[in-house]
Amino acid sequence: MVETVVSIGLAVDEKMIIKKNRIQPENLKGNEKRICIVTGLHGDELEGQYVCYELTKKINENIQFLNGIVDIYPALNPLGIDSVHRGMPTFDLDMNRIFPGSENGAMPEYVAAKIIEDIDGADMCIDLHSSNIFLREIPQVRVSEEMEEKLVPYAKLLNIDFIWVHPVSTVLESTLTYNLNNKNVPTLLVEMGVGMRITKEYGDQLVKGIFNLMKEINIWTGEALEVKEPIISTEKEVEFVNAKSSGIFIPCVGILDVIKKGESMGEILNPLTGEVEERIVSPSDGMIFTLREYPVVYEGSLIARVLGGAEWRKK
Question: What's the predicted TM-score (pTM) here?
Answer without folding.
Answer: 0.94
